[in-house]
Design a protein that fits this description.
6 strands, 187 residues, 58% helix, single chain, two-stranded parallel sheet, 7% strand, binds iron/sulfur cluster, mainly alpha, two-stranded antiparallel sheet
C-alpha cells in the first residue's frame, strides 16, 4: 500500500489501494476510506502483537486522562457548561482535522464512525452525551478553555497536562506504527 496524498488514486471496488495522508478531504470520504481499511485489514491488525500493544497503551492513556479530568473537576465543569451554557467547544468543522489513520484507530478501538452530523452547529462526532469517539484529535485533548483556566487551580491543570501529554504521545506512537505496518506489508 502506498501512502499518497491524492484522493484521485485508483480504487478497486470498495477497496482502497492507498492511504490518503493529510486532512484535506470531506469527512464522509475519510470515514469511507477508514471503514474500507478496517474491513480489509482489521483482522490482520487485530492479530498483530505490536499494534495491539500500542493500541492498548493508547487506550489506557485515554482512560487515565479521563480519570484525571474527573479528579481535577474538568468533567463537572464541562457538564455544567454543556447543560447550562450550551458547551460551545465541539464546534462544526473540528472533524476536518481528522486523518484517515486516526479514524481507523477509532474503528480499531471499537468506536463506530457516524455517517451523519447530529448537531448542525457541532462537530461531526458530537452526540447528545458529548463526544462519540474514543481517540480524539490532539486539538480536542489539549483544549482547556478560558472558563476551565479560570475555574480550575493552576496546579491541578498542570497535573492534568501530564496525562494529556501522555495521551497525545501514545496516540502519535499508534499512528506511526500503523503507517509503518502498511508500508511493510506493501499492500
Ligand atoms: S471545554 Fe470549556 S467550553 Fe468546552 S464544555 Fe468544557 S467548559 Fe465548556
Ligand atoms: S471532542 Fe469529539 S465531538 Fe468534540 S470536537 Fe473533538 S472529536 Fe469533535
Amino acid at each position: 500500500m502506498s501512502m499518497v496524498d491524492n484522493s484521485d488514486q485508483q480504487k478497486d471496488g470498495d477497496k482502497i489501494s492507498f492511504i490518503p495522508l493529510g486532512t484535506d478531504y470531506p469527512i464522509l470520504q475519510k470515514i469511507k476510506w477508514a471503514e474500507s481499511l478496517f474491513d480489509q485489514f482489521g483482522k490482520l491488525l487485530a492479530d498483530d502483537r505490536v499494534i495491539q500493544e500500542k493500541l492498548h497503551q493508547y487506550k489506557n492513556a485515554i482512560i487515565s486522562t479521563g480519570r484525571a479530568m474527573d479528579e481535577v473537576g474538568v468533567l463537572a465543569e464541562c457538564t455544567d457548561c454543556a447543560v447550562n451554557d450550551g458547551g460551545s467547544c465541539c464546534g462544526r468543522g473540528i472533524e476536518s482535522k481528522f486523518t484517515v489513520i486516526l479514524l481507523l484507530i477509532n474503528r480499531l478501538m471499537g468506536s463506530s464512525l457516524a455517517k451523519e452530523r447530529e448537531d448542525a452547529e457541532g462537530c461531526w462526532f458530537l452526540g447528545p452525551k458529548g463526544c462519540k469517539i474514543i481517540a480524539r484529535h490532539t486539538i480536542c485533548v489539549n483544549y482547556l478553555c478560558r472558563r476551565l483556566q479560570d475555574k480550575i487551580p493552576q496546579e491541578k491543570l498542570q497535573f492534568l497536562q501530564h496525562y494529556i501529554g501522555a495521551e497525545v504521545d501514545a496516540g502519535f506512537v499508534v499512528e506511526e506504527e500503523l503507517k509503518r505496518w502498511f508500508q511493510k506489508k506493501k499492500i
